[in-house]
Amino acid sequence: EDKVVQSPLSLVVHEGDTVTLNCSYEVTNFRSLLWYKQEKKAPTFLFMLTSSGIEKKSGRLSSILDKKELSSILNITATQTGDSAIYLCAAVNYGGSQGNLIFGKGTKLSVKP
Amino acid sequence: EAQVTQNPRYLITVTGKKLTVTCSQNMNHEYMSWYRQDPGLGLRQIYYSMNVEVTDKGDVPEGYKVSRKEKRNFPLILESPSPNQTSLYFCASSLISGGASEQYFGPGTRLTVT
What's the mean pLDDT in B22-48? Predict the structure, then answer.
């Protein structure tokens, strides 16, 4: 059975800290891994990763995929209170039926001033 | 403005009363999908559609139906809702299949079945 596991499930840090969120996956016919940020509403897209070892970066956020280890990390440097959210990762099964996304349960990040 | 819209945003209904949650996107996206989100279980895919008249089951399709007669619309139908379908529902779309491009999510529909 396909699954995506995120760790930690929750994390409390102080402003300015650097955090690393983990995502591991077991997905047949893996195609890509997606990261989303969810505040009190719908998830918003952060990154899509398809190639191993290539870092994607957006401001203070960065992410990388390791296909050998079947995992990905999301780094946030110099955290701000606005980074407080649930961070979701999803793996795409692009097998016979195509397009099936499997989400992890998310990491709830709380950034304290 | 490019967006995914869902209606209604909130719905309280009773067991067994058929309901439809509409989803529409104005981005000419091929791929659309429905998810439910429950505490402790995260986002789970219900159904998805690769294009018009092409739909497929996700991880939790039981008790739901979908149709894709037009590219822009992807309604979610609950023929006989039950309390275990109380959840937050999201519709999403992407230009091409779900893992090959960014997915845009609708605002969510909070459904309560009593």
Answer: 93
Report pLDDT digits (tens) over B60-94: 999 999 999 999 999 999 999 999 999 999 999 98
What pLDDT shows up at residue A101? 81
Give how far Cα A37 sits from Cα of A51, A57, A96, B10, Å: 21, 15, 29, 22
* Range B94-103 average pLDDT: 72
Q: Which is nearest to B22 in space by CA: B78, B73, B97, B92?
A: B73
d(CA A106, CA A10): 8
Residue B108: its chain A contacts at CB < 8 A? 41-42
Q: What is the dihedral of CA B95, B100, B106, B111, to 10 degrees?
A: 130
Identify which of B48, B97, B108 has the shortest CB distance to residue A42. B108
Closest alpha carbon within chain A to B30:
A99
| Average of per-residue pLDDT across A5-15 | 96
**Residue contact B108–A41, C-beta within 8 A:** yes
